[in-house]
Amino acid sequence: MSDIPIRAPRPTLLEPGPGERRRNLRSWMWTGFCLFSAIVVLVPLLSILVYVTRRGVAGLSPAFFTHLPAPVGELGGGMGHAITGTLTLIALACLIGLPVGIMAGIYLSEIGRGRVAATVRFVADVLGGVPSITIGVFVYALVVVPMRRFSALAGGIALAIIMIPTVTRTTEELLRLVPNHLREASLALGVPRWRTSIKVVLRTSAPGIATGVMLAIARISGETAPLLFTALGNQHWPDRLDGPIASLPVQIFTYASSPYEDWQQQAWTGAFVLVVIILILNLTARFAASRGLGAK
Amino acid sequence: MKPTEKPSPPEAPGPATTRVTGRKNLGDRVFSGLATLFGFLVLLLPAVMLVELASSSKLSFNAFGVGFLSGTTWDPVREQFGAWPFIYGTVVSSLIALVIAVPISLGVAIFLSELAPHRIRRPLGFLVELLAAIPSVVYGFWGMFVLVPLLRETVEPWLIERFGFIPLFRGEPLGFGMLAAGLILAIMIVPTIASISREVLRAVPDTQREAAVGLGATPWDTIRFAVLPSARSGIVGAIILGLNRALGETMAVTMVIGNRPKVSASILDPGYTMASVIANEFAEADSDIYLSSLAEIGLLLFGVAVVLNLIARWLVGSVKKQGRGRPAAAPKIPASAAPPASRARPSGQEAA
Q: What is the pLDDT of residues B308-351, one digit of tens each?
């Protein structure tokens, strides 16, 4: 942040007066509190990571990824359907949410002007603050009721709506970072505006946008609430987009709230897998951001 | 053509790029039309949400009117619905979360922004953001198996023993309850408040800090008198965004709050929040009025979230504008804070 010395060197001939001693003491107290807060914050983080790993690794096995749940009491079984379900839902969400988000980002950065664009930007931010369960209620009314069934499609739409504000803002900010002389050079060569936007501007910021998309995927892969009554849940392999589908977070929730110990063990392993996936996505995104974009 | 080298800051209105005036060809028109369409889609989305939620709640609103907000009965069998226990639960659990999270988040933000050695700032910042990346359901699961037993066996018996005379801490040490929910929410909103506060603190220009140090301020003096006053409204905005997150948090709360729709003065008792009741009961609601009541609660959540967001973003935005262009008001350092050496006369005639 600042390289200025935060303590000015004190002239050696002057002794600290009583007021200064008191201020120094207060300063140490408050900065000590800040250090203490930083440490306190790490305690639950470590506790969660360690505990989830400890309990989750116990149930790890290839069967976990490839089998369907076994009936209560029977050993074995897995959450293969939930993992596949989550992947399906993420794919659907990206299919719907990415075009909308990226195009909206292009609009805000390349095309939009003045008050209208400012309003769109503002509204996108506000949409990002709406609780995900409310989005679930909305998608229920919009999709589940007319279709008369819970469906993977509804779940995908809900996750897409959650994704859109993040993707829009990330795209817009990254597109703005592309230096203007690239656009000007392209236009000077006779490339039409629309091609410039896609082939020059978008392509330049593609790594950054990919990073943003990774973070958005990390976020929606952990979402449970909106899926509870849109995609619902299932104990079978996903086979159709217009029927209920299992997902990892919902499956974890169902098993965790159950009174059966073997189901709870499955839930811990599921939680461990989910956290690992999200961690990998986050770490990859951060490394890509710090290395790839720096070159631009 | 404007030959600009520096890209405009993201917050600034207006285009970041050169405008092509004159006749647009077909490709340009189609493309900008398409992009504009999607931009407007994003604009319309919350509006459509509002309309859809309102129409779903109409049945319940017609049946119970404004009394829905104060009604305390939640009886699906007799089809009597009142949302007060959930509003109460949401507000109380969020308040507990704020009381715990705000000092800690600010401490972390100040530490990361002003005090920490440069080399640990990025890793530490990353760790704090990692807290935000952990899914809600994993928080709840951990809460059930680590936090709740801790509360049940250690913290709550101690609270009851020492402070049981206050109605706030009366009751049985169940572990599950409002306190557990408040604690988990606190952990979850710390990254939100801390990261926005950090941005806000960064927006305060270094000249303020340098001026304070030049006057002999201790590190804390600098923070308190030169940095925080300018950042105050932005920090309030950060807190409001944290509150917004706490109000809408569903899964972690559902798993530790006990899910009992009764208002109780004690924070050791189980409770129920607006988001939890929707999560638990929506999929199994069998009557239209049941669904409509739940949708009305969803509408309430939506309205509150939008209002809080508007206020918070306006507050945070105003600090960022301050830091960039207009000089903030001169920091007020009380006379007692200045050491004798700084009160040297300008003429230099008299010894300090």
A: 998 888 888 777 666 553 333 333 333 333 343 333 333 333 33
Query: Is the whole-model pTM more than 0.80?
Result: yes
CA distance A105 to B245: 24
CB contact under 8 A, A110 and B38: no
Q: Are A89 and A160 in contact (CB under 8 A)?
A: no
Rounded to the nearest 10 degrees, what angle do helices A80-106 and A152-177 cross at?
40
What residues of A are in contact with residue B53 (Cβ under 8 Å)? Answer: 134, 137-138, 141
CB contact under 8 A, B27 and A24: no
Go through B261-281 and write b for each residue having 16 or more CB atoms within 10 A of its CB, e for each that does not. Answer: bebbebbbbbbbbbbbbbbbb
Q: How far is it, in rounded angstroms, from Cα B291 to Cα B275?
A: 14
Residue A160 sits at the vertex; the CA angle it makes with B252 and A234, to the nearest 5 degrees, is 60
Q: Which residue has the tokens 């508007």?
A: B310
* A130 to chain B, closest Cα gap in Å: 6
Rounded to the nearest 5 degrees, what angle is found at the Cα of A28, between the Cα atoms of A25 and A32?
145
pLDDT for residue B332: 34
* Chain A contact set for B294 (CB, 8 A): 137
Global ipTM: 0.88
3-state secondary structure B171-212: CCCCCCCHHHHHHHHHHHHHHHHHHHHHHHHHHCCHHHHHHH
pLDDT tens-place string over residues A82-129: 898 999 999 999 999 999 999 999 999 888 888 888 899 989 988 999
Amino acid (one-letter) located at A20? E
Inter-chain touch B31–A129, beta carbons under 8 Å:
no
